[in-house]
Prior knowledge:
The structure is a homodimer. By secondary structure, chain A is of the alpha/beta class. Chain A folds into three domains: about 1-70 and about 105-180 and about 285-360, FAD/NAD(P)-binding domain (3-Layer(bba) Sandwich), CATH 3.50.50.60; about 185-280; about 370-450, no CATH class. Chain A is built from 15 helices and 19 strands. Chain A has a seven-stranded mixed beta sheet with strand order 6-5-14-15-16-13-17. In chain A, strands 8-2-1-12-19-18 form a six-stranded mixed beta sheet, sandwiched between helices. In chain A, a hairpin with a 5-residue loop joins strand 5 and strand 6. The mean pLDDT of chain A is about 95. At the A-B interface, strand 13 of A face strand 13 of B. Strand 13 of chain A pairs antiparallel with strand 13 (about 180-195) of chain B.
Amino acid sequence: MKQATIIGSGLVGSLWALYLAKAGYKVQIFEKRADMRLMQMSAGKSINLATSYRGWKALDEVGIGDEIRKIAIPMYGRTIHQLDSTKAYQPYGNIGQAIFSVSRGEINAKLMSIAETNLDTKIHFNEECVNVDLENGITFLKNTQTGVLSECKSDVVFATDGAFSAARYAGMQRLDKFNFSQNYIPDGYREILLPANADGTYKLEKETLHIWPRGRFMLIALPNFDGSFTCTLFMPFEGHEFCFNELKNKEDVQSFFKIVFPDFYKLMPNVADSWENHPLSSLAIIRCFPWTHGKLALMGDAAHATVPFFGQGMNCGFEDCSVLFSLMRKHHENWSEIFKEFEKIRKPNGDAVQDLSLQNYIVMRDKVSDPAYQLQQKIERRISELFPNQYFPLYGMVSFTDIEYKVALEKGNEQSEIIADFIKTHSISESTPLEEIDKLIHHLFDKSPAIK
Amino acid sequence: MKQATIIGSGLVGSLWALYLAKAGYKVQIFEKRADMRLMQMSAGKSINLATSYRGWKALDEVGIGDEIRKIAIPMYGRTIHQLDSTKAYQPYGNIGQAIFSVSRGEINAKLMSIAETNLDTKIHFNEECVNVDLENGITFLKNTQTGVLSECKSDVVFATDGAFSAARYAGMQRLDKFNFSQNYIPDGYREILLPANADGTYKLEKETLHIWPRGRFMLIALPNFDGSFTCTLFMPFEGHEFCFNELKNKEDVQSFFKIVFPDFYKLMPNVADSWENHPLSSLAIIRCFPWTHGKLALMGDAAHATVPFFGQGMNCGFEDCSVLFSLMRKHHENWSEIFKEFEKIRKPNGDAVQDLSLQNYIVMRDKVSDPAYQLQQKIERRISELFPNQYFPLYGMVSFTDIEYKVALEKGNEQSEIIADFIKTHSISESTPLEEIDKLIHHLFDKSPAIK
């Protein structure tokens, strides 16, 4: 029987195990941590992810999409909370299009359990990867409880051990001509759990992603099933009027929320008491190339860790599985051919999803509350309504199609310039009548093939 | 007695030991390799470095410049070898200004021997750094011969263990918010030793750096004391008409040299026989930040490894010693203050020397044979002759002053645009009379403070 090793039983590793099992592989997964399913998980510990089209596609390919849909809450748009406590709603796409809030812990636990239903798949916990023999496909392991060293040889090895991949550090990084970078952004984040009302109902609208955009920083909130919201504050560490370093004690935190998020503060006047429940964490973009060498391939965050602002980290990792599986078929499991094509076609998309993520931080924290951006969005939505099969706004290309990320990025930025120019040329404003806008859109669409 | 640990007895480590000894430190140097001075070193094994102003300044500060001058050959300019075997000479600076060819092995051996004359300095060979406790200043070592593990605690630790610094990989890289990148350029290099004539004389002019610029690639030659030249071919690995991958056998090598370096080929018709004497090597730019943490500081290539095209790798590392020593005095050996200021002022210069190095590859392999560049150089030299205390060409700022690299880079590029514009505006050509040029220069200098 064909043998595969997966390093890391996170989201991508667990899903990839399902694909490999489907292809007839005996799969050994080695996970550094203990089995998370055996631990008490408080709701407060969970962080939320947004599953979108690419994620669902990959889950459906192995027949488990519906199982995961049971633990997913649709979010059809953004609810913008302004400083004066007024709110505005911006749909993400056409009617019915949504991204889905899922708990990271829950989806991971489910994926592991489903993977283990395959008799030839086994997850070994507390087994830390300490090295990889890339040429011979040997993974060297150390049991974190007993200290016992062991090794596992297989036909092919996948490193899905995340942004700080041990397999990558130990196995790949000292290879000649291995390009690598880890760059931290100047901003960090801290999570805050906004609990449900006493009767279990939600304190904010449920099926939407809440944003408190404040220019250089922002607070967001994603719904959980129990009526709570997982909120995250993204902000510079230092060097700004509002930054983590300036929030030195409970009083600072309280007055910060009172001043900059007054409506949120009303919902959670004891926010300062929850401040220390979650650590202050940093955010990095990690790029590398090649992604494969000998018998090892990096997948997911191990290959292209990104910042979370487009909600695409998991989706991109899941798409790696779709793509790699299609290449297994194309190349009849000739792994050297599969690896070569995988990194060639996926690397530009890994780079693009990182660029998109960085770009979307500025959209979320700043642009969403800018009238010029709102007008641009309105025009884009209208074009996409009038020409639904020909025009895709950037957000939709990324979240509701599997158009390659690099194409979405290029086309999205190109479109954005055209629309900005269009608005300027025709002096379009919020008060321009809709029929006038429609006429201009038809005219634009007829003459400008670039936006098609 | 104050205790310091240095990891790596290379060029920077050995020189830094001299500075620390001068400041009254007991110095332990741990070197992974065996003592190079005990090994048979063939001339062919040596690679050459160019010592320039910053290097001499740092050597002179500890009183050993004259000792090193004994093994240095001045190179006053570039000799350009065109495809048609004609030659052109371009001085590096004003009369008497030179960079100096030294053998890496020889200078390193000398620095180690001088360092060891201090009774409180000890070099431990075959001791590989396997980890560093940054907070407590403990270096963990493994003897490469016996496998024996040991540790050394000291007041302060310096990692001068080169581009692939073990101290950096093990101690710094997994620190939260440690930015890091290693990026290989698409070109590699291979050395070739051009032997002396039978009577010991040089086959090419001695006191010059020879370049065979060929657009996308180049061959260079630096003189050795024994009449030989260390030649280096820099070229893309793949994807070009002329690249390393296309030189598959002796016949390929021979016909390559015959076609693209005909005058060199005449001097060394058996070049293909020497082809395998030196390995094909890769070239990378390594950037990181911070450079210091707890009791550890990265210096030299461990902090800012660059490609060799401006001949500044060693000089910049030696300048690190000058700067760090001046900060020791300024902050009265308060290491936390010294480290903070060191990385703050040196990091932008580390970045700049890397940008300068990349930029100068294009100058060396391509621009030097471009008439427009030659004219620009001629004008620059003339300005610098007329206003020697006010105008410094870029090459001179980098090689013959200790103007900060970042200032040289900015000012150099700014000047370059002004001169290009000046040539264009006044339709200056090779045939413009010198007195006419002088008049225009005086006019330019009077009205444009930007170039002063």
